[in-house]
Amino acid sequence: MTEKTQYLIDKLHTTHRLELSEYECLIERMDAASRACAAEKAVAVRKEIYGTDVFVRGLIEFTNYCKNDCLYCGIRRSNQSADRYRLTPEEVFSCCREGYRLGFRTFVLQGGEDPYFTDERLVPLVRHIRTSFPDCAITLSLGERTRESYQALFSAGADRYLLRHETADPAHYAKLHPAALSWQHRMDCLQELKSIGYQTGCGFMVGSPYQTSHDLAEDLLFVQEFQPAMCGIGPFIPHKDTPFADRPAGTLEMTLFLLSLLRLIKPDLLLPSTTALGTIHPLGRECGIEAGANVVMPNLSPAGVRDKYLLYDNKICTEEESAQCVACLNLRMERIGYRIVNSRGDPPDADRLKTCFDTD
Ligand code: 5AD
Ligand code: FES
User: Fold this and answer.
1) How far apart are CA 269 and CA 295, in angstroms?
2) Distance 316 CA to ligand 1 centre (A)
3) How confident is the model over 8-35, as pLDDT tens digits?
């Protein structure tokens, strides 16, 4: 590790911000020593706020129909081999009931951009979950919708919304998406979500095709400026039926390094150790926590549809039952000295955050 790298990690640790060129320099020069240094600081920062708590979110993948054609994604519209399914609102609700029984207090409703799920269908479902489980957080991950739709779902009781920005660089965005999708529109959606009052999550893939160190630096700068409540990152993994089938996957090392930098950028960030990370390495999710992540998202979808929500090849947990994943993750987290907590898992409020760092 060079002196410059050490200096930049220290600076990020104390000020939580860097210039674009400084992020780029860190990414270009990443090595085992700089990864260890960033991870040590990230874990210390997280410990101040969250101790050894890891939050769980129950993920319900309720439709794999999608009107979009993102070049990297296994459920893209043009993939004729995808076996399409959608759960009924009743089935989604019973996943929540099962999740509640298993201890979950956050449900994440995720799906492709499926025109079937109009506000007329979704709003009553969200309202029903809200009134049935008043102590739970409802997170939506449904892609790009109108401001009116985001507002209606928020008013019905949704608390959080995940919409990965995918890449903060417009030219890179254009290489990963068909012309019908616009980087500007995605960014506008993120601003709308935040202004409505959602706890908003952005995120990006690590090692996606055509990605440069400069692009990744822009992603970090975007997170620094946007100040999301959550940020989902994971390695790009090729899917055999997409135009990027032959591209290499993103690396474990770069993903872990970026998780640590994200923790230093925003100490209270809700940062998942993703399924994609667990897919490229058997201990990927544990490594993610040890690099600074503090959220895991086991799958609550019914066993019969799990092997159909395939954004990339070799996805883990497609043959498990919800209860098995819960038990497995509990054990995995305990083994590395962490503990899964069954709360809504909100970030601490501003006062509490202040006392964390005043006592330093
Ligand atoms: N590899 C890794 N992540 C992917 N996603 C979509 N396709 C892939 C892939 N091939 C991610 C995108 C999307 C999220 C739901 O999954 O970032 O926003
Ligand atoms: Fe699903 Fe381990 S988390 S089997």
Assistant:
1) 10
2) 14
3) 999 999 999 999 999 999 999 999 999 9
